[in-house]
């Protein structure tokens, strides 16, 4: 088979595993160490920065895996396999049996791009926890009713 698509698949899986491990650690931080998160300004900023990195990683991994899936589809096409098979010649007639199914692989690409959206949309909620957002909030405006 022409082409090796394992590195892109491995990168995609590695980003998924790292995202899962970070999510578990962040959940523990949010639930068990709430005071640390609320009292230390650097923790929300660090959380925000890690989320930015994960958005970039998910984008790179999803694009790489989508490109590899396209290459895998072209390599695994039955016409291509029959044309490149050494046993398929004048002596032996080869015919198509079934086409390969890529539905589960396509769904993994879709979920990869969905992860970009989820991690990026979570940035807004994390931004509201940082001091950059809190410093921009205006003070209480006095109610002057006549």
Automatic annotation (TrEMBL):
Location relative to the cell: Membrane
A Pfam family of this chain: MARVEL
Family annotation (InterPro entries): Marvel (IPR008253), Synaptophysin/porin (IPR001285)
Record keyword Membrane present: yes
Cellular component annotations (GO), alphabetically ordered: membrane; synaptic vesicle
Record's keyword terms, sorted: Glycoprotein, Membrane, Transmembrane, Transmembrane helix
Presence of the UniProt keyword Nucleotidyltransferase in the record: no
Coiled coil start-end: none
Membrane topology: Multi-pass membrane protein
Positions of the MARVEL domain: 1-131
Transmembrane portions of the chain: 12-36, 48-67, 105-127
Signal peptide: none
Family in the record: Belongs to the synaptophysin/synaptobrevin family.
Protein's recorded name: Synaptophysin
Source organism per UniProt: Chionoecetes opilio (Atlantic snow crab)
């Amino acid at each position: 088979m022409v082409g090796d698509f394992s590195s892109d698949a491995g990168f995609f899986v590695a980003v998924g595993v790292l995202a899962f491990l970070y999510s578990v650690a962040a959940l523990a931080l949010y639930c068990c160490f709430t005071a640390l998160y609320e009292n230390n300004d650097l923790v929300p900023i660090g959380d925000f920065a890690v989320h930015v990195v994960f958005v970039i990683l998910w984008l790179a991994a999803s694009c790489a895996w989508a490109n590899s899936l396209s290459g895998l589809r072209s390599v695994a096409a039955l016409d291509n396999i029959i044309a490149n098979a050494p046993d398929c010649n004048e002596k032996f007639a080869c015919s198509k049996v079934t086409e390969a199914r890529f539905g589960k692989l396509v769904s993994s690409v879709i979920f990869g791009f969905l992860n970009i959206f989820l991690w990026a949309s979570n940035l807004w909620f994390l931004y509201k926890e940082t001091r950059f957002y809190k410093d921009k909030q205006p003070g209480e405006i006095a109610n002057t009713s006549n």
